[in-house]
Design a protein that fits this description.
This protein is α/β, with parallel strands linked by helices. The chain has 2 domains: 245 residues, 3-Layer(aba) Sandwich (Rossmann fold), CATH 3.40.50; 74 residues, no CATH class. 47% of the residues lie in helices and 10% in strands. α2 packs antiparallel against α10, α4 crosses α8 and α6 crosses α7.
Length: 420
């Protein structure tokens, strides 16, 4: 393939907006990338919430807006902590054997400060661990204790404050994963443009995905209006189509009754065995379900300074899709990613798939008929969890035909002809 340079991007595209497009194009221009591989979250995302539209629709958005090959980040990683999310995605990209550059957005906009913190967190020197234990013992949440320990270790410098921003945190975890895997991929980061990660303001060419989702949740966007603010026309058209078909938008309250039923009927042992559980927290969850009218009611009642909202949401997501508490640890011990699953590709993506046949270090899965390639029991369990996640997500769709189970078995990778 001549002078091929492949950039890898880890994303949720929930949904694909102008900021995502800017990053994809700016990164390709700066790195000289000729091809783009995207690792995309499935039906549940890193904050422990459902994606607003299906992974098939978001795959199509990515391919229509510049990606050449889209791979799946399984639910076991996509709705986990930043460390597990990053490790699962980085190992997936690295296992293709074709990705040269890992490109990501950050608030810092430069690698130096991120790498300085990543070095500390990857090695965890004894002095840092001592401070971390001390702050955890005071009742701090892990993120707050880690920030405080870092400031004690490196001083209250600009480097120590990069953990105050969500994209910086993910970037640091990407760097840790690259280092621990001794990956050949070279990291590049680009400053985020437009609104911040959780900024609710829509009056901007680059609103956050959170602002777009809030607009969708409030009925501020419908299938018969102009393209959604802050979204390229290609992805906006796909979102309008999915909304018209009743397959979007999907939010956590669409699963409220299921979650309440599980919280109210599960045994103490079942709740106590959820991922990321600590002693006694299952009682808070059960109590929170007693009078809840919304998903936020449950999270608000259970969350504390020690147990942040995102952690509670991930636990509820694990309960919803049936993820065993030991599973994240088993995957970490086994090297995280267990297969490479193709969600979609373009003509240029075909070139990458052809190359991967000779370079990939994990099984490559396309249609369900290829699942027999999996000989590893842990990989099979990872795929089974993905099937449960998808069978759960479709229950929020309006049309009963879209709510049929077993849709993962009917999945065929999306082919999107490369636009001239």
């Amino acid at each position: 393939m001549g002078n091929r340079i492949v950039q890898g991007i880890i994303a949720e595209y929930n949904p694909f907006h102008n900021g995502h497009l800017h990053h994809l194009l700016a990164s390709a221009a700066a790195t000289g990338a000729t091809h783009t591989v995207c690792v995309l979250s499935g039906h549940f995302v890193q904050r422990g919430e459902p994606s607003v539209c299906s992974k098939a629709a978001r795959t199509e958005m990515a391919l229509r807006c510049g990606a050449d090959l889209v791979l799946e980040l399984p639910a076991a990683f996509s709705c986990a902590s930043a460390e597990s999310f990053a490790a699962g995605a980085v190992t997936t990209l690295d296992a293709t054997g074709i990705v040269d550059v890992l490109s990501f957005g950050s608030e810092a906009g430069s690698l130096a400060s991120l790498e300085a913190v990543a070095d500390v967190l990857a090695d965890e020197p004894e002095g840092f661990r001592t401070w971390l234990r001390a702050f955890l013992d005071t009742g701090m949440s892990f993120p707050a204790a880690r920030q405080a320990a870092l400031e004690k270790w490196v001083g209250p410098s600009a480097d120590s404050h990069v953990l105050n921003n969500p994209n910086n945190i993910l970037g640091i975890e990407y760097l840790k994963a690259l280092r621990r895997r001794r990956s050949r991929m070279k990291p590049r980061t680009f400053a985020r443009v437009g609104r911040g990660y959780n900024d609710p303001v829509m009056e901007d060419a680059f609103p956050s995905a959170a602002a777009i989702r809030a607009s969708l949740n409030g009925g501020g966007f419908s299938g018969d209006v102009a393209p959604a603010a802050g979204m390229p026309e290609a992805s906006s058209a796909i979102l309008r189509r999915e909304m018209a078909a009743g397959r979007a938008p999907v939010f956590t309250d669409g699963f409220l009754l299921i979650i309440l039923h599980r919280l109210r009927t599960a045994t103490d042992r079942e709740l106590a065995s959820l991922p990321w559980m600590e002693q006694g927290l299952h009682n808070r969850l059960r109590s929170a379900a007693a009078d809840a009218y919304t998903f936020s009611d449950i999270v608000d009642a259970a969350a504390t300074s020690r147990y942040p909202r995102t952690r509670i949401q991930r636990m509820l997501c694990a309960l919803l899709i049936g993820m065993p508490g030991t599973f994240p640890g088993e995957l970490a011990d086994a090297g995280h990613a267990q297969y490479i699953r193709i969600l979609g590709f373009t003509d240029r993506g075909r070139e990458l798939l052809a190359a991967m046949k000779h370079t990939a270090t994990l099984p490559i899965l396309g249609k369900a008929s290829q699942w027999g390639l999996l000989r590893n029991p842990l990989a099979k369990r990872l795929l089974e969890l993905e099937c449960r996640a998808s069978d759960t997500w479709v229950l929020a769709c309006r049309d009963r035909a879209d709510r049929r189970s077993g849709q993962e078995f009917r999945h065929v990778p999306l082919y999107q002809r490369t636009l001239p």
